[in-house]
């Protein structure tokens, strides 16, 4: 009887797809903790906020499924281009045992160590550019038109990395595996890659997170960087990576996350990207959602300075989930006695973007947190 039912199910693909779209979100919702996540901050369960943070951070680090394997960076300068008040440099760096990557560094024309910003790029379903989404490519780079199109679509035609360099920041951006010089690895290939990593006891999300840790370590050890004034800034998938990185390490003084924050209950809904596999695997750590909700993970960044920005019309991030996440973050920063270090902003009329108005908010906030000096 079961076999006959299965054959009938497979013979009706359209009806089956509809059935799956309707049933799977409910099925997944039932797998989530029904009342509270075991490692969520709850004063009645955790007497010490620092102990809670240590437990949560240990759970996050374990979920990466990626061992700490430091290697020599062995950096090699490939190309330079002088710009207005700073230079653009292309470097080749050994990031992990498996990955030698190219990264862009924008260095202000000053002899003193500068506050530094690590930029983490989005997914965006566009793979010919990665670091170029943040930093203007070299004048002779064939990816320049694509980068300009991306900047026009999401960033009010601005290259945010170059704007930061003009303000006096040392700026670093690299490609996540699958983009630009490390791609293209598109949707079906992403799913296949993630599946094979799971077979080997690793994860695509863990690889991305560990590489972000290594990027920050590389930035920190640069003599032209003021290691006491390091920041991370990300948009969309890069925002997820930004608050995740801030949760994993104390090397960051300030973090900014634009257009990626919610809760699992609000994301596990019909049609949401998190249920589709493919690009979602860059943000799915096996088993972690049974212990910590999304805002719980982001809150592990407390009590450092963090700025979260979202748009009320962002179809990828339901505003009810954003509101819930903001409230959860506030309880943790308050428990640390650091409520003034958390800034959360929901722009009701904006969508999935990082526009000029939002950029100015970020520039002002970073200058205040990193005490940017002329």
UniProtKB/TrEMBL annotation:
Keywords: Hydrolase, Signal
Region forming the signal peptide: 1-16
Repressor among keywords: no
GO molecular function: hydrolase activity
Keyword Hydrolase assigned: yes
Protein name: Dienelactone hydrolase family protein
């Amino acid at each position: 009887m079961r076999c006959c039912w299965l054959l009938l199910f497979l013979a009706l693909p359209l009806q089956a797809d509809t059935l799956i779209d309707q049933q799977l979100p409910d099925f997944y919702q039932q797998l989530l903790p029904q009342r509270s996540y075991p490692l969520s901050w709850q004063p009645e369960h955790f007497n010490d906020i620092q102990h809670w943070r240590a437990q949560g951070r240990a759970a996050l680090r374990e979920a990466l499924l990626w061992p700490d394997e430091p290697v020599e960076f062995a950096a090699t300068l490939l190309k330079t281009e002088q710009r207005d008040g700073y230079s653009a440099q292309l470097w080749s760096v050994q990031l992990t045992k498996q990955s030698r990557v190219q990264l862009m560094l924008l260095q202000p024309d000053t002899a003193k160590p500068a506050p530094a910003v690590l930029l983490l790029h989005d997914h965006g379903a566009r793979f010919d550019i990665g670091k170029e989404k943040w930093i203007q490519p070299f004048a002779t780079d064939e990816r320049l038109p694509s980068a300009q199109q991306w900047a026009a679509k999401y960033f009010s035609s601005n290259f945010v990395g170059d704007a930061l360099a003009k303000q006096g920041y040392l700026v670093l951006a690299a490609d996540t595996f699958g983009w630009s010089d490390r791609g293209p690895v598109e949707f079906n290939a992403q799913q296949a890659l993630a599946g094979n990593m799971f077979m080997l006891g690793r994860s695509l999300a863990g690889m991305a997170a560990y590489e972000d840790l290594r990027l920050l370590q590389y930035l920190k050890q640069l003599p032209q960087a003021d290691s006491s004034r390091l920041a991370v800034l990300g948009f969309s998938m890069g925002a997820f990576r930004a608050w995740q990185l801030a949760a994993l390490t104390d090397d960051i003084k300030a973090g900014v996350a634009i257009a990626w924050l919610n809760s699992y209950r609000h994301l596990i809904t019909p049609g949401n990207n998190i249920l589709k596999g493919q690009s979602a695997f860059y943000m799915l750590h096996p088993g972690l959602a049974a212990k910590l909700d999304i805002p719980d993970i982001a809150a592990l960044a407390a009590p450092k300075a963090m700025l979260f920005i979202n748009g009320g019309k962002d179809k990828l991030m339901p505003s009810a989930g954003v509101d819930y996440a903001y409230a959860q973050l506030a309880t943790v920063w308050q428990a640390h006695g650091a409520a003034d270090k958390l800034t959360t902003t929901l722009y009701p009329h904006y969508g999935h973007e990082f526009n000029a108005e939002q950029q100015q908010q970020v520039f002002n906030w970073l200058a205040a947190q990193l005490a940017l000096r002329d």
